[in-house]
Amino acid sequence: MLRIAVPNKGSLSGPAAEMLHEAGYRQRRESKELRTVDPTNEVEFFYLRPRDIAIYVASGQLDIGITGRDLLIDSGADAEEILPLGFARSTFHYAAKPGTVGGLADLKGKTIATSYEGIVAGHLAGHGIDASVVHLDGAVETAIQLGVAQVIADVVETGTSLRNAGLDVVGEPIMNSEAVVILPRARTHSPGGTPTTGADGEEPKVRQFLRRLQGVLVARTYVMMDYDCRVEQLEKAVALTPGLESPTVSPLHNEGWVAVRAMVPSKEAQRIMDDLYDIGARAILTTAIHACRL
How is its activity regulated (predicted)? Predict the structure, then answer.
């Protein structure tokens, strides 16, 4: 069986389980379950602390993991990102009391408190900045107030927590993170990054798993659009809805009219519907896509 690590709690857990369910995989029924088996798809899921998943995957004991890019990099584990999943997005920033740190260069000689020591140490080293890094678990906003550090490095979403602590963001983001699929770095990969077929027979299952998740991502990104238009307006309509390869066009019973079907980006669907209506298209419908393979 393919052995897959899934976050057991936090902002990664719910969306990961939902995506796996949409991809056709059985998920646990109770949050206390640490392991579940999907015999139909020959997959075994292990529900682990998100911060530990990269280490388990790098060890080779598990084949695949879903975790955060930040947690992967911070762990220093010998695993690599294969597929970004688009949820649990976050941005890492330095923050300090207003007027105390103007930019990245001002971090030299400072003490920085963070829960992500690996990320911060790597970022400082990459910019040639000599500073001390103090590891703290959990919220780090009070570290400056209590004199543990002059600067913190943490996830910034709305900035409300920083403002409440009397802190300002310093400089550009350290990194942007989101949920990702990871594999052990030791796996053999094709030039495109997809696992190649191995003698142990596991790689086809890995490829199938990745295809399913990619299908969910596409299904969430596109909608199917159907509409009717006159033949003389078809070229203009097709220009608005080119589809992936080409739209499907079928003649209608009324002569001079055709029915068109094409996938369109969901974020642009309302604008496209307006434009189609303006050129004379009618009966314009959109429907959700629940799964697909490209």
Answer: Feedback inhibited by histidine.
CA 183 to CA 2: how far, in whole Å?
12
State how far the Cα of 69 lies from the Cα of 113, in Å rounded to an integer: 20
Rounded to 5°, the CA angle 105-111-112 comes to 85
E-only strand ranges, the chain: 2-7, 35-38, 43-48, 64-68, 79-84, 90-96, 111-114, 132-135, 151-156, 168-177, 179-184, 222-230, 248-251, 257-265, 282-288
Q: Is 119 helix (H, G, I), strand (E, B) or coil?
A: helix
Q: What is 203-229 written as a DSSP string?
A: HHHHHHHHHHHHHHHHHHHEEEEEEEE
Beta bridge partners of 96: 151, 168
Rounded distance between C-alpha atoms, residue 169 and residue 285, angstroms: 45
Task: Write out residues in the chain with pLDDT < 70, as ranges.
Answer: 158, 187-202
Cβ(6)–Cβ(20) below 8 Å: yes
Q: What string of DSSP letters covers 26-64?
A: ---SSTT--EEEETTTTEEEEEE-HHHHHHHHHTTSSSE
Q: Do 284 and 226 contact (CB within 8 A), yes or no?
A: yes
- Burial category of 105 from C-beta neighbours within 10 Å (exposed 0-12, middle 13-18, buried 19 and up): exposed
Taking only the tens place, the pLDDT of each residue in 136-158 is: 987 788 899 899 999 999 987 76
Structure tokens at 246: 């080409």
Backbone angles phi, psi at 45, to 5 degrees: -105, 135
Query: pTM higher than 0.90, yes or no?
Result: no
